[in-house]
Write a sequence for this structure.
């Protein structure tokens, strides 16, 4: 939920004030935090009632009745994980914590079960040639290649719809008519789909200059060859909390070097590390941009890629952030990735 901060309170808050905060927040819940937003506990109207039955004075601090060991989730946990946890433990809410134990959000069962409609636009880049997946893409654009029972782009679309998004733009070029024929105006999915038609290759960001108008809220841009279970709500919260102009989603990957890596100082051997594992954060092809970022795209719809657009944000002295996540993610760039996606689909998306 977006207004969780309205129900935060320090441990010394009198019970009578805590009740006011909880009622004004319309959640019947209070999040008790210290001055650094470290979670101290949760308090519900039920906790307050039990305190009254024990004859605790209404001027007593909320810490006397709060639950000091509430169930929590990590900010990186998937929507599906949190929903399953809440249902299994019969919880209506779960605080979301970062790695240091700071509260960064609040999941509500009613929102997870039926997400609110979100007016943020979603732009999906679906115009690539997919040459590395030939011959599969000789007669079919990559976004329409079937993973399980559905095309890749349909899986992406339905994933966004689950989070309440309903306004979509598909940037198309190669075999665009096939994509337009399959999805139409989006009414079969209860959403609105418009098409940004690239007359020439514009790069991974250039087609944003074809949007019919400037969006009024931060909007997503995502490559049309990705499968992921990332929590889009968490990205929006992260972007807003950090007052970012542009947010890049990054995925941690591990790579085992199949050799002994040698450390040297000039010609002197200092050591050998056998088959080390290196960790990297890579660009996951999912972005959240403020509308004003569109002014950084060249006039005349010239080509520009997303890394260049982010560099322009940075060069302008504006806030660009990286959102790390651990949810399922697969970039379907090569034939091996496509076969992996086909194996993963039944377990991850059904």
């Amino acid at each position: 939920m977006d207004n969780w901060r309205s129900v935060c309170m320090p441990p010394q808050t009198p019970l009578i004030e805590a009740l006011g905060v909880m009622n004004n927040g319309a959640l019947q819940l209070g999040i008790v935090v210290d001055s650094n937003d470290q979670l101290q506990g949760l308090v519900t109207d039920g906790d307050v009632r039990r305190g009254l039955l024990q004859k605790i004075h209404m001027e007593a601090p909320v810490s006397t009745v709060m639950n000091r060991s509430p169930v929590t989730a990590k900010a990186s946990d998937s929507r599906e994980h949190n929903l399953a946890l809440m249902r299994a433990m019969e919880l209506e809410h779960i605080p979301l914590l970062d790695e240091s134990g700071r509260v960064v959000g609040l999941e509500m069962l009613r929102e997870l079960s039926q997400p609110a409609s979100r007016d943020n636009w979603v732009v999906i880049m679906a115009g690539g040639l997919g040459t590395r997946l030939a011959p599969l893409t000789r007669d079919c654009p990559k976004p329409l290649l079937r993973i399980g029972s559905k095309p890749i782009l349909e899986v992406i679309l339905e994933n966004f719809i689950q989070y309440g998004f309903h306004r979509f733009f598909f940037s198309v070029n190669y075999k665009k008519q096939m994509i337009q024929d399959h999805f139409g105006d989006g009414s079969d999915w209860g959403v609105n789909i418009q098409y940004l038609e690239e007359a020439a290759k514009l790069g991974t960001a250039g087609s944003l200059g074809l949007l019919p108008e400037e969006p009024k809220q931060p909007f997503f841009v995502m490559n049309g060859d990705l499968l992921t279970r990332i929590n889009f709500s968490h990205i929006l919260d992260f972007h807003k909390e950090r007052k970012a102009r542009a947010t890049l989603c990054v995925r941690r990957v591990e790579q085992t070097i199949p050799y002994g890596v040698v450390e040297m100082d000039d010609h002197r051997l200092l050591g050998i590390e056998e088959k080390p594992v290196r960790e990297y954060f890579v660009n996951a092809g999912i972005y959240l941009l403020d509308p004003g970022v569109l002014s950084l795209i060249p006039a005349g719809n010239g080509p520009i890629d997303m890394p260049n657009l982010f560099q322009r944000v940075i060069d302008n002295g504006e806030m660009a952030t990286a959102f790390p996540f651990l949810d399922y993610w697969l970039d379907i760039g090569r034939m091996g990735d496509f076969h992996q996606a086909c194996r993963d689909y039944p377990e991850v998306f059904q």
Q: What stands out?
A: The first strand starts at residue 8 and ends at 9. The radius of gyration is 24 Å.
